[in-house]
Specification:
2 copies of one chain form a homodimer. With 477 residues, chain A is of the alpha/beta class. Chain A has 3 domains: 3-66, Orthogonal Bundle (Arc Repressor Mutant, subunit A); 85-95 and 127-358, Aspartate Aminotransferase, domain 2; 361-476, Alpha-Beta Complex (Aspartate Aminotransferase, domain 1), CATH 3.90.1150.10. Chain A is 41% helix and 13% strand. A 7-stranded mixed β-sheet of chain A has the order 3-11-10-9-8-4-5, with helices on both faces. In chain A, helix 5 (121-133) packs across helix 12, helix 6 packs parallel to helix 12 (345-356) and helix 7 packs across helix 11 (329-340). The N and C termini of chain A lie far apart (51 Å). Chains A and B meet through helix 4, helix 5, helix 7, helix 8 and helix 11 of A and helix 4, helix 5, helix 7, helix 8 and helix 11 of B. The structure holds pyridoxal-5'-phosphate (PLP) (2 copies). Residues 111, 175-177, 201, 203, 246, 251, 279, 281, 309, 311, 316, 321 of chain A line the site of one pyridoxal-5'-phosphate (PLP). Chains A, B: Residues 1-69 form the HTH gntR-type domain. Chains A, B: GO terms for molecular function: transaminase activity. Chains A, B: In the C-terminal section; belongs to the class-I pyridoxal-phosphate-dependent aminotransferase family.
């Protein structure tokens, strides 16, 4: 890293951690040069870099200022039909899942984290050591609630999101998917209705389908999440059994519900006496510091079932997830046992040690930094190459982002076309119970190499332009 | 091993593999001495050993003969109530599961295989190598149907049970428990009735409960399995949706349904147009060679969902199971994805290699031999120490055995008492939908050390005698 890059990195971190806030004036070039013992031209180079990344802007004769984050092209608030519906879209989901691992080019499709960071090394070492030196530990049946050592560490970890949990309040699962599936079954009977965000993660919707439930999609705002007003209307009108939300670094929209709205959501559930299933799988890689509180942190009567895993913060292949099931613990334990008995112990022990020895904290700190830069870069290249009527979400955590194209473009057709050239993404209809969001799609930005991403996005942009009504109109002239 | 022990082992193997059949006259002492180049007294010592093990008997003036296997004290045919019932017993099951790993003495309770054999070494080495040299392989999302390499090997493996499968016909699961749970959900709707053996494995019954189904327990014979006659009556009378059976090395009874009865069961399912879920988790450690055919091997129209895992043949901690779902493949894939997404890949790859390189065949050959000897030993010590009115199953595979005590003895009370002295077993009511078999229990005999088992059984016998009506009558005199 050259001097100017180092300085730019430093300034970027200060801005990202709100040391300099939006609209703030930044130190003058001279001041910085003195402070850091570098030349004037080095500082100028650093500022030019940040300008290019749209983090700072130069105002003539006044110096450099932190940019207002541009959120003006956000996706629209969703308007799903206001009645409970059967979930469809399984074939589309399966089609995408079967495509796992087959992409030759850049992986923009799956919600797969970056797993190349050297901060993962201690974890990998522990895994190798366990396999080598204590193989017998991995052979036996073990506690169906999961390793006590891991549950202990989880209690420590979740303090950061405002929770006070006891190891007995936790059940380890095979990833967050099992956690969601178990919780959905634990709070409902076949035929019941569950309220969800719109768009929503397809894995939870398919779990609703498999449990013979109906989904009630609630209008959702791209910055503040599920509309509490619309939710309350729905609760008045329908016998909804549970609310299912991903309020922190939402998949696919990337928003984090403001804390007061989380609390209001909890109060609403309380007044209608229903359960909340809270999916916090991206919570630890929020760009906010300290990380946002969970709805669970407001829970005084055990109605929140908090679900998470290390699939997004560490690696999905480990399949280590967990539930803090509150008052539903006994039912959750039953369904978890029935679903898959116990979970393999090595990954659990390795993660427990990773947390205990501080490796996890270090790793997610690194990941948060990387992902935030990668988000900025992706936003920038999208802005540079996609048609100007494109709307894009502004994720404040995780590594996925939602794009809304001109309403006439069909993302299912688009994805078929793109696959042929080795570019992939997750088409919008997967995130709806009934195949809406046809002009939307989700992109992954966990890839570190800017060049790779830029090339993939340029290819994608070219194909989008082919589908764009303006191009079509021009052609037909 | 001394000379006479070696010879005894040899003869035992010949008997066990039906080279000498029940009632056959064995070679004379002189003949054997000549044939093996050992002394007369060595042969005599070997025969004495086999006599003690009740494998051979001396007839005055005629020489040695293979014993009739004594199956006269078999448990009775079960007589469950002939109507569909809700499954209860979860608290009792949980109580036992929570007890996993806490036994200080001999583990007689859980259906845990012996994992100390050196034949497992190649597998452990592969696991350690994968963790060390290809850690990245274990991190990513992967095929939700499981590793193709493992599915390939499974196709080869299942030829031994009469199946012809294609890798696309298989779905890998998190143990056999997930396989059963997924299949039960795939073939039924909430409220449906499933016919099961009585007694039955508690894990499958609890899965029936969790899927909101009712269980119809069918009378079951300790040697031939589920009564086809009673099953047909039940099928006539109730709208049964599926039959759930463990026809090979049944848990807890140990019987293997004769092949013709397996075929009849399949035909019955065909004529009532319903599904069969076949749990074959112990099939590969049957003492018969070649191993018994599965019901799946008779399946011409895809109505059999075959479930298994490597939990009993290799090690449960690996959590590698699988389904051959026949015509239910799409539904099974959906429910499997929803339940836990993909399975960890290292254990799958390690098992695939273990099979490919012949280690698996070698391992189960060893295990079958050990378990058969250990069964004989357990039967012998039970006979020597338990009250004479005890009935015992005669497992022809696996490492578990069913005991029926005097009807006045309550195995739930017995287990509480025994736990205090560090001896444990699985009480009978766990194996019934509604808490029957109070005077029954299941014992594990996977432990290799004869002395340990003998001591544990003696302790158990002493406590059983305390509970026995004769002792109580004597005391009250
Ligand atoms: C919101 C959300 N919840 C749950 C999951 C499933 O996580 P896991 O891989 O731990 O099962 C995902 C993965 O894509 C997700 O995005
Ligand atoms: C008959 C039967 N089926 C299934 C299972 C569950 O096997 P797994 O540990 O592979 O989930 C067991 C385990 O005890 C069993 O005895």
């Amino acid at each position: 890293m050259t001097l100017y890059q180092k300085l730019a990195k430093r300034l970027r971190e200060h801005i990202q951690h709100d040391f300099y806030k939006q609209g703030d004036k930044l130190p003058s070039v001279r001041q910085l040069a003195q402070e850091h013992g570098v030349s004037i031209s080095t500082v100028q180079e650093a500022y030019r870099q940040l300008e290019q990344d749209q983090l700072v802007e130069a105002k003539p004769k006044s110096g450099y200022f932190v940019c207002q984050r541009k959120k003006d092209n956000l996706p629209s608030v969703s308007r799903p039909p206001q009645r409970p519906l059967e979930v469809s879209q399984w074939e589309e989901v399966l089609n995408m899942l079967m495509n796992r691992g087959s992409t030759k080019g850049l992986q923009l499709q799956h919600a797969m984290p970056d797993m190349t960071s050297s901060t993962l090394k201690p974890l990998l070492k522990t895994l190798a050591d366990l396999s080598k030196h204590k193989p017998e530990l991995g052979l036996s049946y073990a506690d169906i609630r999961g390793s006590e050592e891991l549950r202990n560490q989880l209690c420590r970890l979740t303090v950061a999101s405002g929770c006070q949990l006891h190891p007995d309040d936790l059940v380890i699962t095979s990833g967050c998917q099992e956690a969601l599936s178990v919780c959905i079954r634990a709070v409902s009977e076949p035929g019941d209705i569950v309220a969800i965000e719109s768009p929503s993660f397809y894995g939870s919707m398919q779990a609703i389908k498999a449990a013979n439930l109906k989904a009630m999609e609630i209008p959702t705002h791209p910055e503040t999440g599920i509309s509490l007003e619309a939710l309350e209307l729905a609760l008045d009108q329908w016998p909804i059994k549970a609310i299912f939300v991903t309020p922190t670094c939402n998949n696919p929209m990337g928003y984090t519900m403001p804390e007061d709205r989380k609390e209001q959501l909890y109060k609403l559930a309380q007044s209608y006496d229903i359960a909340i299933i809270e999916d916090d799988v991206y919570g630890d890689i929020s760009f906010q510091f300290p990380r946002p509180k969970t709805i669970k942190s407001f829970d005084t009567d055990g109605r929140v079932l908090l679900c998470s895993s290390f699939s997004k913060s560490v690696a999905p292949g480990l399949r280590v997830g967990w539930i803090a099931p509150g008052r539903y613990r006994d039912k959750v334990t039953h369904i978890k046992y029935v679903s898959s008995s116990m979970c393999p112990v090595f990954p659990q022990l390795a993660i427990a040690k990773f947390i205990r020895q501080g490796g996890y904290r270090k790793h997610i700190r690194q990941m948060r930094q990387n992902y935030e830069q990668q988000r900025d870069h992706l936003l920038q290249v999208i802005k540079a190459h996609f048609p100007s009527d494109t709307r894009v979400s502004f994720p404040d955590g995780s590594f996925i982002l939602w794009v809304e194209l001109n309403p006439s473009i069909d993302s299912i057709k688009l994805v078929e076309r793109c696959r042929k050239v080795g570019v992939d993404f997750a088409p919008g209809p997967l995130f709806s119970a009934t195949g809406k969001f046809r002009n939307g799609f989700r992109l992954n930005y966990s890839e570190q190499t800017m060049e790779k991403r830029e090339n993939a996005i340029k290819t994608l942009a070219k194909i989008i332009r082919e589908f764009h009504p303006e191009t079509i109109a021009q052609k037909s002239l």
